[in-house]
Amino acid sequence: MDGAWTAAAVRRAEARLMSKVPPGTLMQRAASGLATECANLLKRRDPQRRNRAGVYGSTVIVLAGPGDNGGDALYAAARLARRGARVFAVPVMGDRVHPHAAAALTRAGGRLVSTPPQHCDLLLDGVLGIGGRPGLPGRAIDQLARIDAGVVVAVDVPSGVDVDTGAVPASAVTADVTVAFGSLKPCHVLGRAALLTGDLVLVDIGLGPYLDQPSVRVAGEGDIAAWWHRPGPDDDKYTRGVVGVAAGSERYPGAAVLATSGALAGPAGYVRYAGAAADGVRRGRPEVVCTPTVKEAGRVQAWLVGPGIGTDEAALAELRQVLVSPAPAVIDADALTLIGEYPSELSRREAPVVLTPHDREYERLYGSPPSEDRAAAAAALAKRLNCTVLLKGHHTVVAASDGTVWANPTGRPQLATAGSGDVLAGFLASLLASGMDGVHAAVTAAYLHGRAAALASEGHRTVTASDLARALPEAIGEVLARG
Q: Are 244 and 274 in contact (CB under 8 A)?
């Protein structure tokens, strides 16, 4: 498990580490890692360069603030200048810059200028660090507008974002690559700021042993593999888990097919379908056993209810039938709308529940839209309804009722397609049926759903929900093999 730490937590860890090393050590470690990554980027941009490092003759511009973030950028730029780069540093807050770092740059042949060239191979964003307030100074905005950069590299965080929440309430840098020091920060994995981070590179500066528990957790392949329930030699279709799917209707039969397809991709050994779209399910997924209603489906280890069932009295009756079951349940789509109208139905529930709202469904449940602090928004809903919340978005958030928050690192724009959520919900229910707890099941489902989107979209092709369902087994296999 990885994680993301708030600015205050990082500052505490830095203070502990700095008490044990010579002054300036952390900044030099950061600058060294940053310079190395910049050199690698310059080499990849022009692989035909004779110089092996790819730095000699390149043009680098630094937008430098007066703090340690600007110091990191200037020290890194000095290293690039010593390797033959043409470096121009622009102080963006008056004439204030980190004095020692600026001196190192000029000694290496770099220049402090007010007007840099209009074109550069690489632009280093060293305007604001983790202590900066959201928004950019006017001079930085002007320079970003006039400079044509081959690649923009943010130093630790994209300047202008809210480091602790991922909100972007004002102007901010859009980076192609962000080189983070010591740990991830919430802005790298949450909210609109995560979209501005670009590719993320983490440089180890020795903070690890001094960090407290992260404010946001981030799962990796090893976590997914460790949580996955692999069938043993004595297992059968029942012991692997039976998942029930109450989805679809005469109007929306496809939701039933997609949800059962997602469930079949998971680890459960048996899928039961309950609903009015049985004919379509039988044609599309003959492995699924179909019944007209939840009550007739028999015993299951987990339920999914909601995709495409409608919001009429018949749908409400099916939701109620699921809620009186002792099995864990995933509540999605139309069932979320019904819970918003009849919140008391959920208050009587004792077995675990996972809610999977997008923003509009969240508003129906909570009474107001999720704030830009999406981690706090998901946690507030989870606490209020005493359940696990999977808040969907470009960077999905999973929150437990105890306030623990996970950010999903695998989200892709291709997931914004009709039926994608139906596949996710069915897959999540299968994970619950296999014995995984609600939080780990939600984190795992979001992670592998994103990986399936990556596989399905290779070659930049358009992705449908059916493509996602077909790609899930391959995504699972890759992660389990490497994890």
A: yes
Please classify residue 461 by burial: count the beta carbons closer than 10 Å to its beta carbon, then call 0-12 exposed, 13-18 middle and 19+ buried.
Answer: exposed
Q: Where are the domains of the chain?
A: 2-215, 221-482
Range 134-166 burial, b when 16+ CB lie within 10 A, else e: bbbbebbbebbeebebbbbbbbbbbbbbbbbbb
pLDDT band at residue 51 under the 50/70/90 scheme: very low
* Residue pLDDT, tens place only, 329-380: 999 999 999 999 999 999 889 899 999 999 999 999 999 999 999 999 999 9
The encoded tokens of residue 164 equal 């602790």
Evaluate if residue 50 carries a pLDDT over 60.
Answer: no
φ, ψ (nearest 5 deg) of residue 131: -95, 0
Distance CA 468, CA 10 (A): 38
pLDDT at 52 over 70: no
221-482: CATH topology is UDP-N-acetylmuramoyl-L-alanine:D-glutamate ligase (3.40.1190)
Which class for 336: exposed (0-12), middle (13-18), buried (19 or more C-beta within 10 A)?
buried
Residue 394 has pLDDT above 80, yes or no: yes
Write down the architecture of domain 2-215 according to CATH: 3-Layer(aba) Sandwich (3.40)
Would you call 267 helix, strand, or coil by DSSP?
Answer: coil
Cβ burial, residue 432 (10 Å; 0-12/13-18/19+): buried
Is 126:158 a contact under the CB 8 Å cutoff?
no
The closest alpha carbon to 117, from 95, 79, 150, belongs to 150
Give the 3-state secondary structure of residue 235. coil
Q: What is the pLDDT of residues 189-248, one digit of tens each?
A: 999 999 999 999 999 999 999 999 999 999 999 999 999 999 999 999 999 999 999 999
Greatest alpha-carbon span in the chain: 80
For residue 72, which amino acid is it?
D
**Distance, CA of 482 to CA of 78 (rounded, Å):** 39
**How many CA atoms, within 13 angstroms, populate the side-chain half-sphere of residue 216?**
32
Mean pLDDT for the stretch of residues 61-76: 97
Secondary structure element (H or E) that encloses residue 272, with its range: strand 270-274
436: left (phi over 0), alpha (psi -120 to 50) or beta: beta
- DSSP H or E segment with residue 98: none
